[in-house]
Amino acid sequence: MRALDYTRATGFEAAIEILREDPAAEPLGGGTTLVDLMKCGVVQPSRLVDLTHLSGHRDIVADGSALRIGALATMSEVAVHPDVRRRWPAVSEALLKGASQQLRNMARIGGNLMQRTRCGYFRDPSFAACNKRDPGSGCAAMDGENRGHAILGTSDDCIAMFPGDLPVALIAFDALVHVLGPDGTRSIPIDDFYLLPGDTPWREHPLERGELIVGVEVPASPAAASSHYLKVRDRVSYEFAAASAAVGLEINADGTITDARVALGGVATKPWREPTVEAELVGRPATPEVFRQAGELAAGGARPRAHNGYKAPLARRTVTRALIELTEEAGEEPRR
Fold first, then answer.
1. Which residues pair with 246 in a beta bridge?
2. CB neighbours (10 Å) of residue 194?
3. Separation of alpha carbons 129 and 229, rounded Å
4. SS3 state of residue 194
5. Dist CA 188 CA 65 (whole Å)
6. First to last CA, the chain
7. Strand-pair partners of 265
8. What are the counts of helices (DSSP H) followed by strands (DSSP E) for the chain?
9. Are strands 227-232 and 243-251 parallel, antiparallel or unpaired?
10. Going by DSSP bridges, is the β-strand pair 47-50/25-28 parallel, antiparallel, or unpaired?
11. The pTM is what?
């Protein structure tokens, strides 16, 4: 790594001003992603602006309407919070499956939402062709080793997979991302917070220069309270998803599904909501056969490359299994 400056921010407004004035400065939370990218030579900031000593924006508050998480709360703090585990279990499960305990103790929620792709071509500057790292240079993954790459939301310029877990759960339950910048505050629906690569894969978020995440808000709902996150990976722990699913169901007294939430991870260029699967579930009985029929609609429109075609059937089976596990764990024993 090359030499750089370090500033311990005295407040969010002071940090925003430094970031606005210095286009090469980067905010520092837990650093679990940023430091990796610095070591790889992908990111070379002129200055790190340390946010970790700031007061505020670390609260975790749940009331009747929503869960509100400060951007500086750690993954561990949110994962074990009793209200999160009870009323937004998929959020807790996604965090617990997202990293090692040591990383969860360091990583902040704001930084977790900004996590970048694990594409090996992006993270290794010895490969010249990466539109995400060097706009206009091409995409080496298209005809290279692409077993772990995306099959949904891809473009002719990028097939890099979004690696996160928490945002998959957040997108299933219509979370809002609250940001603060030079022009004040604004709230961004999380589905809009992650941009498809299109012909500008280097632009991953709609954040303007100097804007910082200050919090996340997740609405309360019966489906969020009855939810589950399932992660399928090549090894049991400390691995990114080959496919994952965040699911939530509201089931009435006669066993009919009245609300369904389904989102996929590990298979797309962003956290991927599945409204077609949700529509197939609503109004039908909560049975394994219905879950299998709905699950077969997942990953529609997939565009696999040479090595990642397995992800489409895996995504469908992951959705089905997540729904079955959810109803079994909730005591809604499915009719066989």
1. 229, 263
2. 22
3. 35
4. coil
5. 18
6. 58
7. 244
8. 14, 12
9. antiparallel
10. parallel
11. 0.95
Rounded to the nearest angstrom, the gap between the alpha carbon of residue 91 and the centroid of all alpha carbons in its chain is 11
Let me know if domain 223-329 sits in CATH 1.10.3720.10. no
- Give start-end residues of each CATH 3.30.43.10 domain in the chain: 5-53
User: Rounded CA gap, 112 and 167, in Å?
Assistant: 8
Q: Which amino acid is at 304?
A: P
Bridge partners (DSSP) of residue 213 are: 179
CB–CB of 210/182 below 8 Å? Answer: yes
Q: What is the topology classification, in CATH, of domain 5-53?
A: 3.30.43
Residue whose C-alpha is closest to residue 298's, from 279, 326, 325: 279
Q: What does the pLDDT average to over 15-39?
A: 90
Q: Which amino acid is at 141?
A: A
Q: How confident is the model at residue 150 (pLDDT cuts 50, 70, 90)?
A: very high
Q: Is the pLDDT of residue 336 over 50?
A: no
Question: Would you state the structure tokens that stand for residue 90, as one six-digit string?
Answer: 């998929």
Residue 239 predicted with pLDDT over 90: no
Q: In the predicted model, what is the mean pLDDT of the chain?
A: 94
At 323, which amino acid appears? L
Residue 335: per-residue pLDDT: 34
The residue type at 263: A
| Segments of the chain assigned to CATH 3.30.390.50 | 223-329
